[in-house]
Amino acid sequence: MSNDNIVLLEIYRQMVRCRLMDERVWLLNRQGKAAIVASAQGHEACQIASVWALDRTKDHFFIYYRDLCVLIGLGVSVREIMLGYAAKDGEPLSSARQFPIHGASRSHNVVNLSNVVGTQIPQAVGSALASKMRREKGITIVYFGDGASSVGDCHEAMNFAAIHKLPVIFMCENNKYAISVPLSKQMAIDSIAGRADGYGMPGISIDGSEASRFLSDVKKKLEMITLSTKKSQES
Ligand SMILES: Cc1ncc(C[n+]2csc(CCOP(=O)(O)OP(=O)(O)O)c2C)c(N)n1
Ligand SMILES: [Mg+2]
């Protein structure tokens, strides 16, 4: 089997693992045993493929509350995550003291996250600025929802990142709703990626349920970012 196929198979394994875990957590929630849950169902392919497109040993991951599968992709175990939902000791992100899957893990390169929508976006841009100033190779990826893409933090962060040509990927997981508010009531445009033009950086829309296309498109984007950051470091 080719290396590419081995990676795709592993991505698929992790997607199935996440879906089964997510379904189980929902059952526990309905039984009153898991207090609060933000489902990642339907987000599995893009979340896991995004991790495989990057380098877990040197890149920085700024996740949000829906990124259960990113954590699995980064190597947090199902057991560790379930301990969080059950509020038991041994969970590595916050020792189960926070909302499940919140907290930080240095060994997994996950930075602490807030439940307040959009706050991780300027923080991620700060991390990318630090990488650039220290001439480190790592890049930063920040995840957020379509609703978060409308908050002020997001606009300020994108503007700053584009001006300074920072090594950062903004990954919007567009599930077309911010709680019960549909996309058409959140913005007057069709493509969130189209906004990138306005900041002066490239933006692409990818089908988030297509892991292999996602993987190759994110890798292409990474090459562009590395090139552009290198050029701006030289100038
Ligand atoms: C600043 C702020 N405003 C409102 C909320 C309440 N809230 C929690 S999730 C959410 C919807 C976010 O939607 P989106 O960014 O599309 O992410 P999704 O949950 O769809 O993945 C809102 C408004 C919040 N947590 N923070
Ligand atoms: Mg949404």
Helical amount among residues, as a percent range?
40-55%
The separation of the N and C termini measures 44 Å
Bound molecules: thiamine diphosphate, magnesium ion
Task: List the helices and strands in order.
Answer: HHEHHHEHEEEHH
What do the pLDDT scores average to? 93
CATH superfamily: Thiamin diphosphate (ThDP)-binding fold, Pyr/PP domains
CATH architecture descriptor text = 3-Layer(aba) Sandwich
Ordered list of secondary-structure elements with their pairings:
Layout: H1 3-30, H2 44-53, E1 60-62, H3 68-73, H4 78-85, H5 120-133, E2 140-145, H6 152-163, E3 168-173, E4 177-178, E5 181-182, H7 196-199, H8 211-234
Helix pairs in contact: 1-2, 2-8, 5-6
The structure holds thiamine diphosphate (TPP) and magnesium ion.
What would you note in describing this structure?
- With 235 residues, the chain is mainly α.
- The protein has a single domain (3-234), classed as Rossmann fold.
- The chain has eight helices and five strands.
- The protein has a three-stranded parallel sheet with strand order 1-2-3. Strands 4-5 form a two-stranded antiparallel ribbon.
- Helix 2 (44-53) packs across helix 8.
- The longest helix has 28 residues, at 3-30.
- It starts with a helix and ends with a helix.
- The site of magnesium ion has 6 residues, from strand 4.
